[in-house]
Design brief:
395 residues; mainly beta; 28 strands; 7% helix; Methylamine Dehydrogenase, Chain H; 2 helices; globular; single chain
């Protein structure tokens, strides 16, 4: 029997109020840089770099997408790659993109999903790909999309997940695919999903992990997959997961990292942990201090320090560090640019927002994921602000 869906109409002023409240929540709980709002152009407030595609949320709550679209992961109703931003939906507060699927939360707490769905990672109870947003759940405050699984935090702080569970990333003590949401744990404040792992910070600041652990990416000191949540460390305020590595910020601003390897087990890595070495770490190791935000990409990492400086390290095979040139690995943090308020590291590309509101992108661009209207890789940051603003004015 079909259910009646109650539609909540929200004015643009209310949307702006909710977005500002969401920003304040990010500042207080995710330690995003605190800057003078008079120095920031709020045209774009959120960026998300995925595998070969990207998203941006503007201040009016509109969601924009560009890049690879083979499975409809952009959500524009097609499977055509987009080299320039296209408008997807309105009233959006948060977005998270996995390998080929995307999840978004709207201002009324509704969760939407689209893209690849062969492992039921969208949570709609089906296995068919979706080329446009479909409603999944209500009462959601946070969402993260992994390679083929999805996890959410509900309004009561409970953590739920669905989709691929082959490596125990959903934490139900078995490895069967989950078509519908299952409960993982309670009292969760911050969530991150990696390729095949799930990380959660509880309200007491303790970090818990589950799923694949081939390269020590769970940080529990072993290489054993975990089909249930295991404790990693305490006093954590933010977490970011990459392809095979994990980065965490503690309350004192120190940055810690672990995991990290190439495709072959026991091989050297690209220095994505940032501790100066190129070997996987099964337990957290210190990287640097005074960090207020971190984003772990496929095999590179970006971090913002208290003075607004953006630092990067790890693989630079496509110029994703933004240093000019490509190929050289950097196992220690390198200064990239100043006056940065947000950054997102994708599989092999990076997007950042500066205090003046300008948006910059660099790295791999095979599918137009940089949003500069081309498919040319960029080894140095390019300003794509006008591409997004022009698109919003013409659509």
């Amino acid at each position: 029997m079909a259910k009646k869906i109650k539609i909540l109409l929200i004015s643009s002023a209310t949307i702006l109020t909710l977005i500002i409240a969401y920003i304040i929540w990010q500042i207080l709980f995710l330690r995003i840089p605190v800057v003078n709002v008079n120095d920031i152009n709020l045209d774009t407030i959120t960026i998300e770099a995925g595998d070969n595609h990207s998203f941006a949320i503007q201040v009016d709550g509109s969601l924009w997408a560009w890049g690879s679209n083979e499975y409809g992961q952009l959500g524009d109703g097609t499977t055509e790659d987009r080299h320039d931003p296209v408008r997807i939906m309105d009233g959006v507060l948060a977005v998270s993109t996995g390998l080929s699927h995307t999840m978004a939360i709207t201002t009324n707490g509704t969760l939407w999903g689209w893209g690849h769905n062969r492992s039921s990672q969208l949570g709609d109870g089906l296995m068919s790909h979706r080329h446009a947003p479909v409603r999944i759940l209500n009462g959601i405050v946070d969402v993260c999309a992994g390679v083929q699984h999805t996890a959410v935090i509900k309004t009561d702080g409970s953590l739920w997940g669905w989709g691929d569970n082959s490596l125990g990333q959903l934490g139900d003590y078995i490895t069967a695919r989950q078509w519908d949401p299952i409960s993982i744990m309670d009292n969760v404040s911050i969530l991150q999903t990696g390729s095949f792992q799930t990380m959660a910070i509880k309200t007491d600041g303790s970090l818990w992990a589950l799923g694949r652990n081939w390269f020590g990416e769970l940080g529990d000191g072993t290489g054993v997959d975990r089909h249930y949540p295991v404790w990693v460390m305490d006093d954590v305020v933010y977490i970011s997961t990459g392809g095979t590595h994990t980065m965490a910020i503690k309350s004192d601003g120190s940055l810690w990292g672990w995991g990290g390897a190439n495709i072959l087990p026991h091989s050297v890595n690209n220095g994505q942990i940032g501790d100066g070495e190129r070997v996987p770490r099964r337990s957290p190791v210190w990287v640097m201090d005074n960090v207020i935000y971190v984003s772990a990409g496929g095999e590179h990492t970006m971090a913002i320090t208290t003075d607004g400086t953006l630092w990067g390290w790890g693989s630079n095979s496509f110029g994703q560090l933004g240093l000019g040139g490509r190929g050289a690995r950097n196992p220690t943090p390198r200064r990239i640019m100043d006056d940065v308020v947000a950054v997102s590291a994708g599989s092999s590309h990076t997007i950042a927002i500066r205090t003046d509101g300008s948006i910059w992108a660099w790295g791999r661009n095979s599918n137009g994921q940089l949003g500069d209207g081309t498919t040319t890789d960029r080894s140095r940051p390019v300003n794509i602000t006008n591409n997004i603003i022009v698109s919003s004015e013409t659509q």
